[in-house]
Amino acid sequence: MDASAKAQANDRPVPDTTHVEDGRLRSSTWTLLGALLRDPPGDDLLALLVRVEEEDAAESSELAAAWHALSAAARMARPAPLDDEFHDLFIGIGRGELVPYGSWYRTGYLMDRPLVALRRDLALLGLERDPGVREPEDHAAALAETMALLTDPCEGQDESTQRLFFAEHVDSWMPTLFADMQAAQSADFYRAVGRVGEAFMALERAWLHADDPRPGPQTGPGGPGEEPQ
Amino acid sequence: MKRDQGQINGARRGFFRVVAGAGVAAGAGALILRSGTAEQEPVARAAAPEQASYRETDHIRKYYDTARD
Fold first, then answer.
1. Residue A31 and residue B26: Cα distance in Å, rounded?
2. Most exposed: A3, A158, B3, B22, by fewest CB within 10 Å?
3. CB contact at 8 A, A45 and B22
4. How far apart are CA B11 and CA B67, in angstroms?
5. Residue of B nearest to A46 (CA)
């Protein structure tokens, strides 16, 4: 599909090929993050991650450094320990070390008001949870997937809508999750995922001109003693 | 921010080369789907406060520029 057709389909004011490319890159990055947050990566995805290190020269930006660290972690990763790490981090017995749900991070409770608001907005955007999926829509992977759909240059939404969704449902808590991921005792490979996630969120915040919801350092959600419902 | 270009070039190019491939690898098993209710889209657009003009900083622009190569 050519750029003007894409722009028209998306009701964009500027049929700009460059902008379409940007959208594709952003969307792909969100897709990758969604995949890493949804399941431990399989061999194919790990092999792709390893290739980055092989292809690129050293350089100094935070996202690039984060990316190289993830690539190095992918090189060291083995399927069985990675499955264990994912389970310990996100699933656990009763709960994992981290609880990757927006409602939990924002209110200290699972399936609370933020999930209700998210479901409303997803419906407005013409998106829905796969009927076969049990995870609530405010799981970090689902939100990354949603951002991938919203930033898709063919079928996504305009940037003002992206910004609204990002600010309300994503940037309001996922940077904290990514920070917690980097500090989690159970994390090894996922420390590197957290670093990439945090750096990419900062880029998206700048791209969308969203306000930074965290003017200062912030600790994790809930705090000791709080348990999910 | 021209001076940043040399620093940021390489890894970003590779990063996006990989994520483009990962998009394919990661496509299966998605949690969120399009519901295909096209008539709902205008409501979502109406909820946006204003049509965003396309704004960018040189730094961010360069990031995506270099990634396209």
1. 7
2. B3
3. yes
4. 8
5. B22
ipTM of the complex as predicted = 0.77
Q: To 10 degrees, the CA torsion angle through A118, A119, A124, A126?
A: 110
For residue B62, the surrounding DSSP H or E stretch is helix B58-68
B6 CA: distance to closest CA in chain A (Å): 8
Burial of A99 (0-12, 13-18, 19+ CB in 10 A): buried
Pick from A49, A124, A130: CB nearest B33: A130
CA distance A139 to A34: 10
pLDDT tens track for B32-55: 999 864 444 444 444 444 433 344
User: Closest Cα of chain B to A162: distance in Å?
Assistant: 9
Token pair for A76: 């060291």
Structure-block tokens of residue A149: 């759909």
The CA-atom distances, in angstroms, between A199 and each of A44, A137, A152 are 24, 23, 20
Summarised one tens digit per residue, pLDDT across range A79-134 is 999 999 999 999 998 889 999 999 999 999 999 999 999 999 999 999 999 999 98
Structure tokens at A116: 């209700």
Distance CA A224, CA A55 (A): 43
Of A19, A122, A130, the CB nearest to B30: A130
CB contact under 8 A, A164 and B47: yes
